Amino acid sequence: MFKIKSIFYLIFIIPLNIKCQSKIDKNTNEVMGNNDSINSYTENILWKQLKQCFDYYYIESGVEGSDEYNKDDLQAAIYKIEQMLFNNNFNFIDKNLFNKKIKNIFGRTIDVSSNSEYLYVNFFNKCNKNIVYHPNDIDYQGIFIIKNKNFIMDFYLLPRIIDYQKEYPKLYEKEKRLTEISNREFGIAKVRYWKDMFSLNEKNKNVLTLVSRNKYLFNDDKSQFAWLINNDSFFMENLVTNFGYTEDKKLLNWVMEKNKSNAVEFVKNNIFVKNCQGDLEIREGILKYIEENTNENDNTYYTALESFGYNIGDDNNFNKNEKVKIIAYIANSLSPLFYKYTQLNGNAIWNSATMLYNLSVRNEYIISEIEKNNYFNLSNLKEVIENLDVEAPPLPAE
Q1: Are residues 40 and 185 in the same domain?
Q2: Is the pLDDT of residue 318 over 60?
């Protein structure tokens, strides 16, 4: 099997015109040679994957079979997915803009001086940058950023995204003649072959998911939003909760409404977090959402954020200085809402005083540290602290 360093677009549905040609890398023809090279490469990888089958286990022992995948499997998928994106009118954007969007959305910096062709984004541990050549399942969730082609993709094995029965009929016939797997130690295996596992509709859905993600993120195609939240909700929610992406207000609103019934846990896990360097990261976009969506009838997230502030002293994830900063940010967001809505005759239930007032009564250190840090340059905080003297005292202990 030979290695191929770069690729060009394979178009089977629509012919290339002069305008489309400008989107193809200049060095493509020099490096790749011709379509036959790509077809041969893809066919070899596909046959390898078909022989590996979908999965198998040995009947007598119950031992599961396992197969290792590698860069060749990924490269074959890159060829096909690039073709699919092009055929579905994805606009491959400028590299600089792509790099900027990747930084903004996933927090990853693409090193333009690096020779690596892609980055792996691990959804289970975003700080772990090791490459994982494995399809997404219960144990693996992540995407590949294809640096030299400016799109993102899952690690899909070819039978999950192509109608190989139609495109490669000879391989399909060979697959049908595959025999059972046996092993001297474990005996005969029960095999599930690719041909028996996935319908064309399922494969089309996988392709549509990849196309919709890329159009939504890199072409700013908001028409993809409804389909994605209904069919790709894990990915969409993780953009906000895992990576802190809050620029799309419609997406942020969807995530916040989706988690409203579990507001306390959402606030605890997704507003004040540690970045990969171990430093405090404050997701101000979510705080802004709470400020703008709290009112006299609904203070669900207000109450959850207030509770988090009250209990921050017991949180071992943050040091003393970080805790003061967190309290400052919470007070900056919540205190103005308290003053604005507690006097109105709404349905929401409020405490008799602000969180900052109650905490400062117990610990004067908090106020002095906030003032020492120039109110952390927060717009409301100085006025909030000046108003503490005129607040009502907290309710007496029962």
Answers
A1: yes
A2: yes
283-313: buried (b, 16+ CB within 10 Å) or exposed (e) per residue?
bebbbebbbebbebeebbbbbbbbebbeebe
User: Are 29 and 132 found together in one domain?
Assistant: yes
CA distance 301 to 85: 39
In a domain, 242, yes or no: no
Query: In this model, does residue 156 exceed pLDDT 60?
Result: yes
Total domain count for the chain?
A: 2
Which residues make Cβ contacts (< 8 Å) with residue 67, sequence separation at least 6? 52
CA distance 106 to 194: 33
Are residue 194 and residue 270 in the same domain, yes or no? no
Nearest to 282 by CA among 325, 312, 315: 325
Percent of the chain with pLDDT over 70: 87
- The set of residues, in sequence order, having a beta carbon less than 8 Å from that of 98 and lying 6+ positions away, is 150, 218
By residue range, what is the domain housing residue 60? 18-204
Chosen domain end from 204, 225, 248: 204
- Count the alpha carbons within 13 Å of 56 in the hemisphere toward its beta carbon: 22
My answer on whether 43 and 154 are in the same domain is yes
Residue 43 and residue 181 in one domain: yes
Q: Which residues pair with 188 in a beta bridge?
A: 182
d(CA 303, CA 298): 10
Q: Where are the beta strands (DSSP E) in 116-162?
A: 118-122, 142-146, 151-153
Q: Decide if 239 contacts 105 (C-beta within 8 A).
A: yes
Average of per-residue pLDDT values in the chain:
88
Separation of alpha carbons 167 and 46, rounded Å: 11
